[in-house]
Amino acid sequence: MSTPAEILATPIVEAANVRPPQERQLARLGLRTVRDLLFNFPRDYEDLSDLRPVAELEEDVLQTVRGTVEEVDSRGTGFGKSRVGVLVSDRGLLLRATWFNQPFMRDKFKVGQRVQFSAKPKMRGGRWEMTHPHTVWLGDEFAEADQQTSEPSDLQPTYPLTEGLSQFHMRRIAGEVVPKFADVPDEVFSPELLAEYDLLSIGEALRSIHLPENFEQVNAARRRFIFQELFILQLALAARRHQQRVNFLAPALEATAQIDARITRLLPYEFTPGQRSAVDEIAQDMAATSPMNRLLQGDVGSGKTLVAVYALLVCVAHGHQAALMAPTEILARQHAHTLERLLVQSRVRYRLLVGGLKASERQEVLREMAEGEIDLVIGTHALLEEKVQFKNLGLVVIDEQHKFGVEQRAALRRGDRSPHYLVMTATPIPRTMSMTQFGDLDVSTLRDMPPGRQPVTSYVVGPGERDRWWHFARNKLREGRQAFVVTPLVEESENVAAASVDQAFENLTSGELADFRVDILHGRMTAMEKDDAMERFRRGETQVLVATTVIEVGVDVPNASLMIIASPERFGIAQLHQLRGRVGRGSHPGFCAVLVDEDLGDTGRERMQKFAATSSGFELAELDFQLRGPGDLFGTQQHGLPPLVIADLVRDAEVLEQARDSAMALFSTDPGLASAEHAKLRSQMLRRYGAALDLSDVG
Q: How many CA atoms lie within 13 A of 561 on its CB side?
């Protein structure tokens, strides 16, 4: 007897009447087996419930007409093309349905048949016409056995298509396959869980999503599959957390009272309550022998780096090595400058490992790391290379976590030995994302600001206000302040209407800022060129730095008080907030201007006004999440997780909460999903997320 998996592996061509051309077209969509087709959900539905007599039709509105076939004709239109026309009558008025290059439609109609056509009609030559309408045969003495003779559904699914494959064919194939195979897939949920969350069974859900009679059935089916998708994801994240605690050993690094006192003496000011709370959470994690996996998030300027430094020094105090990893060389060098200031009274040995080092210097750093002569290494992705060896790594701090994935973190493990991990982000994470893309991490949040942090005032500057703004900016520069000018492009593009570094530099140095020292910084420069440009700006040798978003995070120049952003519509709101956070970091208040054009549009202008009026990164992150969705918020695919198929983190936040609570409760009763009753859930979880989350040995 065949298993459900074997039955679902049945080729579509064996399960339905599919001709060879359609088989190739389905394959282009990735549809080869019954399983593929069952879980290829409609992307939308056509509502055919607007049934009207011909006399009341409107142009370009989806409507349905029922009538009797009066005439059928077929003709060639030249160059091998064909046209089939069917004339139907309804209460004395006529409507023509037309199909181009589908000669087989000629044989599907006979005079006297009752038919139903649905489409957006056009008035042509004084007569209503529908092109390629959705057609239902209503039944009469001429009806053929394979034509529908029951009352048609008002809802028709709309599937993703490929060239040569029509909705008519997709609906027909689904109509053959779904009724025969909908009850074959295993039900992974218990009857109790289905009842608790009022979920359809798998068979009911498949029939309702493909062959619905009304939108109530569609919504119930969607909810079942959304819940299941999010539930399986939450199980996978719970499994990963469990695996991290159970499968790996980390050194116990306790922040004793003596170590705490020694570290806090080095720091320039006392912790805020939020920083102290985060430090305590981190210290508790690091004192355990299971690896810490904690995310530290906070608004721009909330003092995350100081918290990270505390954790690094706790590790070093126990004789273990620590690593601080940043996504860019500029940010890595910025961290090195910060540590240089903080550790001036310390004996901690630290080095920088980035791509721009000379070969001889790089070899020296690698040797010192391997032999334990270095306590602390600051670097980029270069730390992940195979030739990089630590003698006794105890802690890894990763800045801007969203630029790194699970595999990159795991690369620093050695067998069952793992360092503690503290990952940081300056882009506050919306709640639904913290439960999904970052759901394998414990979270510490900094909401308060260190004392002395200067406010940043933001302005939306249109074309008519530019002269006033540049007059204000020049006065600030003459007072001794410095400015960033940020553009989305390095050089002008014919395909993208946005400002570039090259053009902005040319315009400013020959116009508004001709009397000032202006420099350039962008990602195409060599490491040495970027470092030199940043150093000149940091020392005040240049007054204005025209740059791309390479200065988005971490760059700390206390004297910079002006942030000017060209083509701001090309950035997300959270990204604009990060850029704004580069100013006001010293003793002078900051000012941020987004330079908008007249053709920005009402929606874009409203978005800029909300940015200018809101100083909270948490509020802006939620707003950006609502506007742009999770994929664009950070500009990268988090963790490398497979994309969600039917769930939407913005729309389905409430279902996510339910799925998470249910998954956590189940996993707590059966860690690893080892029991036989959860074998199907475990199998589905591993098939979907095993590779992405390294769950091959869960359970």
A: 20
